[in-house]
Amino acid sequence: MNWNKPVKFKFGGEDWEMPLSTLLLLIFVTLILMLGGAWLGFKFGAGQVSELCDCKFYEREMIFSFLLVRIVLF
Q: Is residue 1 assigned to a domain?
């Protein structure tokens, strides 16, 4: 299989061309990031974040971030 075969496609009204290996790498990285984000979101929603990190540090950071956003937005 020729991994450097140029793949042509149209996205957003623009013509794109890139090697097959680069396109597959982009798709793979995108899927990994999406799955990782979904997993972290599920853990965060289930309240299991404390199992993943030092909870006291992140609680302080979350409170600080929340207060900073409140000050900036309001």
A: no
> Which residue reads 């409170």 in tokens?
63
Sign of CA dihedral 50, 66, 37, 28: negative
What sign results for the dihedral spanned by CA atoms 22, 24, 30, 32?
Answer: negative
Written as six digits, the tokens of 61 are 């950071």
pLDDT averaged over the chain? 80
Domain count for the chain, please give it.
1
Q: What pTM was computed for the model?
A: 0.58
Across-strand partners of 15?
10
